[in-house]
Amino acid sequence: MILAQQFGFLDEYAKKEIRRTSLKAVAIPGYQVPYSSREMPMGRGFGTGGLQLTLALIGAGEVLKVIDQGSDDSVNAVNLRSFIEMTCPGVGTTRVTGEADLIQSRHRIPEKPLREDQLLVLQVPYPDPLVVVEASEEKRKQLHGEADYSRLLVKLYEDIVKFDEITISHRYPTRINDHYVIDPSPIPRWDVPKLHMSKALVLLGAGREKKIYAVPPYTKAEPLAFEDKPFRVEAFLDEQGRRRACARCGCDNSFLDEYVDSNSGEQVYRCSDADWCDEQLARQTAAEVIYG
Amino acid sequence: MLEVSAIWTAHVQQQNYRALLDAISHPGRVKSILHQQGGLASLAVLATLLDAEVSLADPDDLLEAEDWPLLQASAAAPGEADYILCRGNRAARFQPKLGSLPSPERSATLIIYVDSLHRGELKLSLKGPGVNGNADCSIAGLDPDWIRRREEWVCGYPLGVDLLLVDDSAVLALPRTTKVEVA
Ligand SMILES: [Zn+2]
Fold this sequence. Notes:
The complex is a heterodimer of chains A (292) and B (183).
Chain A: H1 12-27, E1 33-34, H2 48-57, E2 63-68, H3 75-87, E3 92-93, E4 102-106, E5 119-123, H4 137-146, H5 150-163, E6 174-176, E7 180-182, E8 201-206, E9 211-215, E10 221-223, E11 256-260, E12 267-271, H6 274-291
Parallel strand pairs in A: 2-3, 2-4, 4-5, 5-8
Antiparallel strand pairs in A: 1-9, 6-7, 6-10, 8-9, 11-12
Chain B: H1 10-25, E1 31-32, H2 41-49, E2 55-57, H3 67-71, E3 74-75, E4 83-87, E5 109-113, E6 122-127, E7 135-139, H4 145-154, E8 162-166, E9 170-174, E10 179-182
Helix pairs in contact in B: 1-2
The complex binds zinc ion.
């Protein structure tokens, strides 16, 4: 195995372009800043946009966490993490949210509130929420510039009327700083409120679509909604209307994944965020030790 | 303080980039810039951001001739430049590019050299994205005319300019979204 000589795999020109782009993205919250997006040694669509951001950001001595659908151990997360470990000597990795300086994630924002000194990179497959109502990128850019989302709102309202509720489970269109509407990446509705006035900077990278955008800290992030149909996060209620809890740690205020128990055939719910689940379980065990 | 060539190294540029990212994410926050002894922090900022893909204007001749080939950026007039390096103690004398409605990023970033970001006669109160409530800063060596001109440049959001105020060793950012009041 030949190790890349270059710290962070990318050449310094590629990093500079990503750095310039990310600064513009923070200065114009929610605006999709175009950049040239280099080829990576993995297919676009495997988080190359997020990976390029991470490689341009990270320095020796920093600690990185990589998660995919809430898990540090899925194939995608493991591949991305080992690629960064191999190409960035001196960078540490962790599974513990609170220990990470940088977190690169697909599909989830950690349950544990992020701090000001942390930075979240989200991998984005489809950055433009206006694609569903306008095919021409040129026209979409004009609409974004004017903050004209009337057609998107009509589309959203039609869906609500048809199904009598908000059916969008992921990628909920969210307005940033009263202007640009973003695709917040395939995070569930549950995670969208975490973007609002977040203490941590959130950078979003779409490698295939060659766009970088940002939700700066302490910035409004408001899911599109209507007075008669307010935005709601997933409720996770059982048949009796009670909030379901994680079968492993008992937590009843986390985003749950649904499994089918292979023995009983019953539905089982567990925290989607693996580190959160571990932390709740450890806390419980500690409490049991103390209180017997 | 660093030895002469360190601002051109990847390791230092990574750290300076993170200082810039932190500064622009938190308008009003003063972030240290690694720079060479006797050199300008503004040169370290330019070294971090510039290459042959972008253009630079230096209307106040703050750069030495030997800096240009290292920066690699093409020289441009202030009205056309992607980056403009200038002195804060004189009033603005140019109209930077502000971008367009579909492409607001095609706007200038101004790197304004000031005397101090820690204490000064110009007291500013900041609000907006990145600011938790209010942020105060006081700057020495920034002509108040910059604040008035900036107001004209950023009033057509998302068009605008982003300001990086740099003293001998640190940076403070005023992105276009920041509401600035002179206190
Ligand atoms: Zn759990």
